[in-house]
Design goal:
- This protein has helices spanning about 1-20, 50-55, 115-120, 160-175, 195-200, 240-255, 260-295, 305-310, 325-335, 335-355; strands at about 20-30, 30-40, 45-50, 60, 70-75, 75-80, 85-90, 95, 100-105, 105-110, 140-145, 155, 155-160, 180-185, 205-215, 225-230, 300-305, 315-325.
- By secondary structure, it is of the alpha+beta class.
- The chain has two domains: about 1-120, Copper Amine Oxidase, Chain A, domain 1 (2-Layer Sandwich), CATH 3.30.457; about 140-355, 3-Layer(aba) Sandwich (Aminopeptidase).
- The strands form four sheets. Strands 14-11-15-18-16-17 form a six-stranded mixed β-sheet, with helices on both faces. The chain has a five-stranded antiparallel β-sheet with strand order 1-2-3-10-9. A five-stranded antiparallel β-sheet has the order 4-5-6-7-8, with helices on one face.
- The structure holds zinc ion.
- Zinc ion (ZN) binds near residues 144, 145, 151, 159 and 239.
- Zinc ion binds near residues 144, 145, 151 and 212.
Length: about 350
């Protein structure tokens, strides 16, 4: 009994401390000003998500099964998960708060950074949506492999070097077209697959394109193909399995650590439905330009359940620009003129999609 009484006393004191740490703060979003009780927890400041929804003239709902919280305000949807820093906006953009959403006494507390740095981008006085980065679309270009991960090898060449060379050419072309381009790597370094998609997620990318060189036991296989995210594995080649195995353990350890299995499946399903069609269209636009420019067989657009695509919240695809295992493709990929033509086709395909 003593222990229980002590626990109650402790809880009472903790609540008093919490109350005394709360202070009224003034905020302004989309031209309207409001006041909220802000609570200091450690060095961070939080407000009640419920109070914020009311202040914005919106609503807050909670899915009892997933515990996912959805705030609707100014025609936008903002989804949060307890213990997660992620904010999913209109089932499309994923941004990160400096602190995870915290539950206290059944109330969900969210970092004030949501109001000061995220909401102003989405809730405008005019009611207009997100302001893109200086009006520029953001494209993330991922040069496959790097560092100790050489990728496929053939004729003394490493896939990682060819992908970086072509990725830089694509970057320069897209920059010239007026897009903001972010590279996952610009030198010979290794990056885990979830880190590559995190770069797209953190920068609010409009699209993510990963560049690779193909490899096959059948040395007659040649030409290009482009993959988009699909649950259906169209074939089980070595490349796909290798990509999957290198990221899976990492993903479970870090990014998804705080989420329940149900939450993960819900998020994946949600992400899959909203981006799959866009990703397929992006893949088609790129492949349509790439196949005639690169020559060899047009192996088409294919769905594959690839981790590098699954973890990004924007439409994404993986381009195979030729076979390192094929003599003719490899010879072409040694030529600067050919690499430039391939880069130009990828950039044009991206432009076709974004316009
Ligand atoms: Zn590869």
């Amino acid at each position: 009994m003593g222990k229980i009484r002590f626990a109650f006393l402790w809880l009472f004191l903790a609540l008093c401390a919490l109350k005394s740490a709360a202070a009224a703060r003034h905020f302004e979003v989309g031209g309207s000003a409001f006041k909220l009780e802000a609570t200091a927890l450690g060095s961070a400041e939080f407000v009640s998500l419920y109070d914020l929804s009311k202040a914005l003239g919106g609503s807050l709902t909670c899915d009892e099964w997933t515990r996912c919280l959805e705030m609707k305000a100014s025609g936008k949807s903002f989804r949060f998960m307890p213990s997660s820093k992620a904010v999913l906006i209109d089932n499309d953009d994923c941004l990160y708060l400096p602190n995870a959403v915290t539950e206290i006494k059944g109330d969900a507390l969210v970092s004030t950074a949501l109001i000061t740095s995220i909401l102003p981008e989405y809730i405008k006085a005019s009611g207009k949506g997100k302001a893109s980065q200086g009006g520029k679309k953001v494209v993330v270009i991922d040069a496959g492999h790097g560092g100790h991960d050489t990728g496929a090898q053939g004729g003394g060449r490493n896939e990682k070097d060819i992908t970086l060379d072509v990725a830089k050419r694509v970057r320069d072309l897209l920059t010239g077209m007026g897009y903001k381009v972010i590279m996952t790597r610009t030198s010979d370094v290794f990056l885990e697959l979830p880190d590559r998609s995190d770069i797209a997620n953190k920068n609010g990318a409009d699209i993510f394109v990963s560049i690779h060189v193909n490899d096959a036991a059948n040395t007659a296989a040649c030409g290009t193909e482009t993959y988009y995210l699909s649950k259906v594995q169209v074939d089980n080649d070595y490349h796909a399995r290798r990509l999957e195995s290198s990221s899976y353990g990492y993903e479970l350890r870090r990014r998804w650590k705080a989420m329940t299995a149900k939450m993960k499946s819900v998020l994946r399903q949600q992400h899959y439905q909203t981006t799959q069609q866009k990703s397929k269209l992006l893949a088609e636009k790129i492949q349509r330009r790439l196949a005639p420019a690169a020559g060899g067989d047009n192996r088409g657009v294919k769905g594959k359940n690839l981790s590098v695509l699954r973890n990004s919240y924007c439409p994404s695809c993986l381009v195979e620009i030729g076979f390192i295992s094929n003599w003719s493709d490899r010879k072409k990929l040694n030529s600067s003129a050919h690499k430039q033509a391939v880069a130009n086709a990828i950039a044009q395909g991206i432009k076709d999609y974004l316009k």
